[in-house]
Write a structure and sequence with these properties.
It contains 14 helices and 19 strands. The protein has 422 residues and is α/β, with parallel strands linked by helices. The chain folds into two domains: 11-48 and 190-381, 3-Layer(aba) Sandwich (Rossmann fold), CATH 3.40.50.1000; 76-184, HAD superfamily/HAD-like (Rossmann fold), CATH 3.40.50.1000. It has a six-stranded parallel β-sheet, sandwiched between helices. A five-stranded parallel β-sheet has the order 7-6-8-9-12, with helices on both faces. The longest helix is centred in the last third of the chain and has 34 residues, at 334-367.
Length: 422
């Protein structure tokens, strides 16, 4: 009998500042996505950047080695179109002060996209060709009573080597000129929460570089937040950036490449094979959660990893009894289930410990925060349980031989006239 495969939660990953800055891919990001997908995660993408059509985003992902279905890319433009559908009937004229991505999302919802009044609604988002004429037309339509929606209000936008003015700067100009605040659709607002739940379900993890939006979205969803420091946030952010929040998120990493190992290890610890939403295996839990290694915190990562253990036969039999009582397992399948469960859990535990070891070594190399003695001592704490008994047995086997040898030598010394050992 084979234990059902794990169904892991989706990873809802930001793009700007996480996979790329402008058009420049962030090193290691594509390989990190491959590792997460190989581990069984569904990796999806959610961006507050509404400027481009979804297929353009998919092409950029494909170009950096991250092939992605169109349905796995979510944008604030889609959230804005969904919000507008609750305010204005399809077919209405909508003035777009934004990029082609917003126009695409609105047309998909059945709206007529226009660039001047009269208009039933105005949607404002990030675009590079914003100017005084666009500001004037958008503000005038809002003053005339049009519904006013902003895709997002991010103040800045991460580009190659610097921060650009974000959608929030454009929205603020229109709001100031119109004398009205907009309804906001993007992260972390309710329209995006609804979009994520509808497309991805009720369980997942949010990965992003901006605590004020990505972190707040994770809180609104009730999902863990994984913060990467490759975009807007940092321990010592530049002007326009954001600090690492206190208390720190469950995961903090220098970039997506550093984050992947921690997400994989943490999910193995929490979940193990699942069938639908019902756990098949009891969760393996450390005595404390795994934070991503960052500076001195890497020791906490090691401490947590050292405390994982494989499922015992007693635990497997208990789980089998529960499944039989629930009608999910036949009595004749119990022994095969127990054998498979124990074997797979041991293999997964060894694999997880290898992930932890590699992550420790990577962090030590990256941050230079441990001596060789430190690493040897901590590596010893992570020794696989299956190796320890063998080591002890070997050691105990040597001791009697050593003592016996000493007794023979002692017996020969006082004895005169005994035959030589030669």
């Amino acid at each position: 009998m084979t234990v059902p495969p794990r169904v892991l939660p989706p990873v809802c990953c930001d793009l700007d500042g996480v996979l790329w800055r402008g058009t420049e891919p962030i090193p290691g990001a594509a390989a990190a996505i491959d590792r997460l997908r190989d581990a069984g995660f569904r990796v999806t993408f959610l961006t507050n950047n509404s400027s481009r059509p979804v297929r353009d985003v998919v092409r950029q992902l494909d170009g950096m080695g991250v092939p992605t279905p169109v349905d796995d890319v979510l944008t604030s433009a889609q959230a804005a179109a969904g919000l507008l559908a609750t305010r204005v009937e399809p077919g209405a004229r909508v003035l777009v002060c934004a990029g082609p991505g917003v126009a695409e999302a609105l047309r998909d919802e059945g709206y007529e996209v226009v660039s001047d009044s009269p208009a039933a609604a105005v949607v404002v988002g990030w675009h590079r060709d914003f100017d005084f004429e666009r500001l004037d037309r958008a503000a005038s339509a809002v003053r005339d009573g049009a519904v006013f929606i902003a895709t997002n209000v991010d103040a800045t936008y991460p580009a190659e080597g610097r921060l650009l003015p974000g959608s929030g700067a454009i929205v603020a100009a229109v709001a100031a000129a119109a004398g009205r605040a907009p309804e906001v659709a993007g992260k972390p607002e309710a329209p995006t929460v609804e979009l994520v739940r509808r497309r991805l379900g009720s369980r997942g993890v949010v990965v992003g570089d901006r605590p004020s939006t990505d972190g707040a979205l994770a809180a609104a969803l009730g999902w863990p937040f994984a913060l990467v420091l490759s975009g807007v946030a940092g321990p010592h952010p530049s002007s326009g950036g954001e600090p690492v929040p206190e208390p720190r998120p469950p995961f903090v990493a220098a970039d997506l490449a550093a984050l992947a190992s921690a997400l994989i290890a943490a999910e193995w610890a929490r979940g193990w094979p699942r069938s639908g939403s019902a756990p098949i295996l009891p969760a393996l839990r450390p005595r404390r959660s795994i934070p991503m290694a960052q500076g001195p915190d890497w020791k906490q990562f090691l401490d947590a990893g050292a405390q994982f253990v494989a499922v015992t036969r007693a635990e497997a039999r208990r789980r089998a009894r529960d499944l039989v009582a629930q009608g999910q397992l036949a009595q004749g399948q119990v022994q095969a289930f127990v054998d498979d469960l124990v074997e797979q859990s041991r293999a997964r535990t060894d694999e997880m410990l290898d992930v932890v070891r590699r992550e420790i070594q990577r962090q030590v190399k990256a941050f230079g925060i441990a001596t060789k003695d430190d690493l040897a001592r901590l590596e010893a704490r992570l020794a696989r349980p299956t190796r320890k008994p063998a080591a002890k047995a070997k050691k105990s086997a040597k001791k009697p031989a050593k003592k016996a040898g000493k007794r023979k030598v002692a017996a020969r010394k006082p004895g005169a006239g005994r035959p030589s050992a030669r």
